[in-house]
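Dear colleagues,

I hope this message finds you well. In preparation for our joint manuscript, I am sending the Acyl-CoA dehydrogenase (Thermus scotoductus) sequence together with its predicted structure, so that both groups work from identical material. I would be grateful if you could confirm receipt.
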Amino acid sequence: AVLGEVGKGFEYAELRLDPARLTHCMRWLGVGVRATELAQQYALVRDSFGKKLAEHQAVQFMIADSHMELHAARLMVWHAAWKLDRGERIRHEASMAKVFVAEAVGRAVDRAVQITGGLGISEDIPLSIFYREVRPFRIYDGPSEVHRASIGKRALFKSLRP
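The corresponding structure tokens are as follows:
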């Protein structure tokens, strides 16, 4: 038996895959936010070269980069969810969010590990778990490279505006 029209299976699947991708993104954002919070808390109490880590500009830059990237990632997810709520197709937006969120969260967790040093790779705080868990985010629901190719094709051949 055939459900729906022959040759339309992937199109039907996309109706469920895109919302699922947004759900993954929301969960991943939580990991990035928590990792950044842990790094901030540590930087405020850890002394380094006679002052708190938080007073070092390099640490401030890392925290700033994580805040900016996570904020942009959150906005991408919100925008895609808003379009979905309006009944619009979000294939392009879901792909962009999936790639951007997975990569931004990976960078945020990496920065958090860098700021916390040896503690970040110990089992005393969850950063080492986050570090192991975030790498596959770039593979789940299609590797980043596949999504990038799809994003590029849609942008070029469907004349999508940035």
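For the figure legend, we might mention the following. The beta strands are 47-48, 51-52. The first strand starts at residue 47 and ends at 48.

With kind regards,
E.M.
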